[in-house]
Amino acid sequence: MFDSISSEVRIFPPWPELNALRSPLTDGERALAQFLDDNLPQDWRIYVQPYVNNMRPDVVVVNPNIGLVVFEVKDWDLSRYHFKNDKLVATTVNNTWIEEDPVKKAQWYAKSLFEQFLVSDEALLPVGSYPNSRSISRAAVYFHCSSTASVYALYKSRAKDVIKAGRDSLSILTLGHLVPNFRFAKSKFIRDAQITALDNIHSWLAPPKHAISQTRTTQLVKGQARYAKPGKGCHRIRGAAGAGKSFVLSHRAARASAEGRKIAVLCFNITMSHILRDLLKQAPYDVNWENVTWMHFHAFVIGLGIDAGIIVSNANNDDDDLDSGSSQAPSEKSSIIDPVSVLKQIYAGKHTPDFKAPTFGGIYIDEGQDFDPQWIDVLAPMLGQGGELVLFADHRQNIYGRDGGCDRAETLQHCRFRKWAQLPRKSFRIPERIALFLNDFSAKVGLGDEEDLPIEEFAVPENNGLALEVLAWHNSTSVESALDSMDSAFSALGNPNPGDVVVLMPDHKLGLQAVSQLQGKYHQIVHVFGEGGPDSPESRRRKMAFWMGRGGLKMSTIHSFKGWELDNVILVWPPPEYLKYLNARQQAALFYTGVSRAMRNMIVLNCNRDYDRFSEGWESLKSSPTRLSDIFDDDIHF
C-alpha cells in the first residue's frame, strides 16, 4: 500500500512545513500528531489539517487495510462546558453561549469521507447488504486540556460510536483506544474495493499544490469555449440535453481554480456530484484542490451549518438527500432542513465565535432548473469581489417544477442574472432519431419556454457491432407485464452486457417493485432504491455507491440518473396512479429527461394510456430501424 509515497515520510505535511505554518498548530494538534507519528506502525499515514471538499479536519490517520480515523482536537477546559437540550453550552464568568460540538463535526467528517471516497467502487455494495461504515471510517475527539474521564463525564451516553479521549490517552498503553485495530494486518470489515480507495485517498488528503494527475485531456469544441472563460457577476447558460452543460461548467470551474479562485461546484442530486467530481479531474487545468468544493446543495448547506454551530442535531441524519421522486411534494421533504434559513443565520452572524463564512471566487451550479430561486439567491452573498455565479440549465428537464434560473424579482435580491446565453444547438451524445423524438415530444406538451430551442445537430454513434439506434415502444397493460417483457427488451437490444443497460423509472415505489420482480433474473442489480423510501438511509447509501463503472444491470429513478447516460435505456412508464402527486407538466419533464439519457438505443415500456399517442410519430422518423414487431407479444410501435 501507498507504494508511490516515500517510506521516509508518513506525516503530511512533513514536520518542517508544519512548523512553518502561518497559523501554528494548537498544543493539542501538535501533541496528538507527534504522538501518532512516534507510535503508529509505519503502514499508517497521518494527515494534519488536510483540506478536502470544503472540510478541514484536524488530524486524519489512514491505513488502507484497516480504515481511517478522523480527529477533532480541542484545547478546552471541559469544566466550563455542559449540555442543555442536546446543545453544548460554554460558560465564563460573564457570558454563556452555544458552542459547536466537536463530536458532531467529527461525525460529519467521517461520514462525508466515507461517502465521497469509500462507497464509489464496484462490489462495495452487493445486493441486499451494506458495509459497516463506522468500522472503516471512525470519528474521534481529543481534548488536550482534560482527562479522558472528564470527556466521558461530559458526553455520558451521547455518541457512543465516537472515540473520546483526553490527554492521558497519549500513552502507548492506550494507543488502541485512539486508533482501534492499529496492530491488525487487515480489518475483517474491509473490502478490496475500499482498500484501493483508501490507497488512493492520499491524493485528496495531501494533494500537490496544483493538479492531481489527469486521467485524460478533454477539449472544448467551437461554440463551447466562449462559455468556459471565468468572469464576474451572475450568469445563466442554457443548453439542450447532451449539449455539454456539465462539460463546459467543469472547464470554467477548473480554469477559475487554476487562476487562483476558491470555487464551489454544486448540484441538486447526490449522483450528479459524482459526475462533476470526475469532470473536474479530467479538465486540462492546474486545479488547486485545496480550494475546490463539490457536492450536492443540501450537503453543502448542512456542512456549513454544522461548522457554524447552527445545525446541532445528529450529524448522521440521512435526510439531507432530497433528490428523488416520491409521494411527497418537494416542499414537504425540504422542510427537514431549510437551507435558506441556515445560510441567512450565517450571514446574520448567528454562529459560533470562531466560524468564518467561506468566500468564493466562483460558484457553479449544474442542473440549475432543479434549484429553488431562493437557494440561488442565498448563495450569491458568498461571492467575493470579482467573483462569479454561473448557472447551467435546461428547463425542459424541470422535473421538480422549481424554475431555478428564471427571473423572480420577488426572491432574487442578491443574484441579478444577465440575459440567458445559449450553448450550440447540438447534442454530442443523443443520436438523431431520439433527438427528433425529443423535439417533437417537447413541442407537443409545451416543455420549457420560447428560449429553449430544439436540437438541430445530433451525435453519430460508432458502429461497433452493437445494436444501432433501436427505438422501440411497447404498450403494456400493467407494470407487472411490462417488467415480464424485460427479456424481450434485451433481445431487441441485441442482448448486451447487463452492465451497459439501465432501467429507468419515475417513482421510487415502482423501482422497489421492479427490483423485487427482476431480482432473480440477473446476476447483480445496481440500484438506488431503499425499503424506507427515497429519503431512507438505505436509498441514500445506494445512491452514493451508484457509479457507471460498477458491473450489473443498473436500475434508477430518472431523478437520480440525471447527468448520467448509457448506450441502452429501458424506460418503464407507469399508469397515472403511480404519479398522481405530480402535475402533467412535471410528468412530461420526467419522461423527456428519461428518454434523453440514451446514447444509442431506447425502449419505452409504457403502461400509461395517456402516453400511447406519443408513439405514433416514431414510424415517420428518419432512418427507421429494423422492425421488431416479432420481439414482443402484444402491441409495439417503433
UniProtKB/TrEMBL annotation:
GO biological process, alphabetically ordered: recombinational repair
Single GO cellular component term: cytosol
GO MF term list: 3'-5' DNA helicase activity; ATP binding; DNA binding
Superkingdom of the organism of origin: Bacteria
InterPro entries recorded: DNA_helicase_UvrD/REP, NERD, P-loop_NTPase
Residue ranges occupied by any NERD domain in the UniProt entry: 27-117
Stored SUPFAM superfamilies: P-loop containing nucleoside triphosphate hydrolases
Short name of one Pfam family: NERD
Protein name (database record): NERD domain-containing protein
